[in-house]
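Final report, Chapter 2: Outcomes

The project's central promise was a pipeline that accepts a single protein chain and returns its three-dimensional structure in a standardized token representation, suitable for archiving and comparison. That pipeline is now operational. To close this chapter, we reproduce one record exactly as it appears in the project archive, with the input sequence first and the structure output second.
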Amino acid sequence: MSHYFIEDNSLTRDIKQINYHFAGNSLTFTTNSGVFSKDHVDPATDILLKTIPPLGHSSTLLDMGCGYGCIGIALAKAYNLNLTQADINQAAVELTKTNCKANKVTANLLKSDCFESITDSFDTIVINPPIHAGKAVTYKMYEESLAHLNPNGILYIVTLKKHGAESTIKKLTSIFGNCDILYKKKGTYVLSCVKIHIL
């Protein structure tokens, strides 16, 4: 069985174009087999994007596990960010490259297993975690996010009650010492954690 969080070159191509509106921008994304939610922007992703407060002009953003690039592209287009996008799946990285060009967004694109290829730190990290990859993978993402946030930087994630939202909150709190619930409705949670800078 194939999953979007692994490399699978055996998949039959099924290229689609989907449209999405965010912060006054009309965006177009090319998708294909082997990436998450290829037929439409995932409802949880939409909630995440609409819950994140406006980000600072020219601040740095990492879209971790970017898939075809929707989250990072939408936020960078809206707030003129310095964007980095990473995914373990090379096909996803190539789609993100295509979608950045189509939506006139500049990004540093990396193939990376979690933070393996990431050397920079960021003001904001956003993750729609690959739940079906298992807790070992998603928790590793959360743990490694801390080291890659600037002081007072913020991690945003979206998760579902049925995917262990309560245990995720406990895990994030153990890592960051804080975890705020920004959105909680119909089993969907948007969470934020701050890398607290102590002078």
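Archive annotation: Helices lie at 43-51, 70-79, 90-102, 135-147, 165-176.
This record, like all others produced under the grant, will remain available to the consortium after the project formally closes.
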